[in-house]
């Protein structure tokens, strides 16, 4: 065979191979490549969506944390105010109680002073009677002279 005929037959076989490949082989390969490209695109879209959702979730978490911090700070401030209020109330009650105790102690001291004065008056009256008895060298009857003794007590 001649080289031209061989070349021509090879060109026809090559052309048949190209047509066969374009008709039967290329469409399934192209379809598989398109499906793969769609899967990759869907995966990328899902990844972007997940990334956006993650970002959104992180923002919500940060907002919740900030709200929680604010609420905690508010509760702590309320607790501190309440504690200070309780302390102030306790101080005022303690001051009132101390004032009552001091007043009661003053009243008691005043009563004791009055009682001591009365006791001293009684003792002075007795001593005065004894002194008068010794001066007069006669017996003075306390029952008879009760009015005189009472005036003496009030004068003392």
UniProtKB/TrEMBL annotation:
Topological type in the membrane: Single-pass membrane protein
One GO cellular component term noted in the UniProt record for this chain: proton-transporting ATP synthase complex
Superkingdom per UniProt: Bacteria
UniProt keyword annotation of Coiled coil present: yes
SUPFAM superfamilies associated with the record: F1F0 ATP synthase subunit B, membrane domain
Pfam name, any one: ATP-synt_B
Coiled-coil segments: 44-122
CDD domains assigned: ATP-synt_Fo_b (cd06503)
Gene Ontology molecular functions: proton-transporting ATP synthase activity, rotational mechanism; proton-transporting ATPase activity, rotational mechanism
Keyword Transmembrane: yes
Location of the protein in the cell: Cell membrane; Endomembrane system
Sorted UniProt keywords: ATP synthesis, Cell membrane, CF(0), Coiled coil, Hydrogen ion transport, Ion transport, Membrane, Transmembrane, Transmembrane helix, Transport
Signal peptide annotation: none
InterPro entries with a match to the protein in the record: ATP_synth_B-like_membr_sf, ATP_synth_b/b'su_bac/chlpt, ATP_synth_F0_bsu_bac, ATP_synthase_B_chain
Function: F(1)F(0) ATP synthase produces ATP from ADP in the presence of a proton or sodium gradient. F-type ATPases consist of two structural domains, F(1) containing the extramembraneous catalytic core and F(0) containing the membrane proton channel, linked together by a central stalk and a peripheral stalk. During catalysis, ATP synthesis in the catalytic domain of F(1) is coupled via a rotary mechanism of the central stalk subunits to proton translocation. Component of the F(0) channel, it forms part of the peripheral stalk, linking F(1) to F(0). The b'-subunit is a diverged and duplicated form of b found in plants and photosynthetic bacteria.
Subunit structure: F-type ATPases have 2 components, F(1) - the catalytic core - and F(0) - the membrane proton channel. F(1) has five subunits: alpha(3), beta(3), gamma(1), delta(1), epsilon(1). F(0) has four main subunits: a(1), b(2) and c(10-14). The alpha and beta chains form an alternating ring which encloses part of the gamma chain. F(1) is attached to F(0) by a central stalk formed by the gamma and epsilon chains, while a peripheral stalk is formed by the delta and b chains. F-type ATPases have 2 components, F(1) - the catalytic core - and F(0) - the membrane proton channel. F(1) has five subunits: alpha(3), beta(3), gamma(1), delta(1), epsilon(1). F(0) has three main subunits: a(1), b(2) and c(10-14). The alpha and beta chains form an alternating ring which encloses part of the gamma chain. F(1) is attached to F(0) by a central stalk formed by the gamma and epsilon chains, while a peripheral stalk is formed by the delta and b chains.
The family this protein is said to belong to: Belongs to the ATPase B chain family.
Protein name: ATP synthase subunit b
Organism, as annotated: Pseudorhodoferax soli
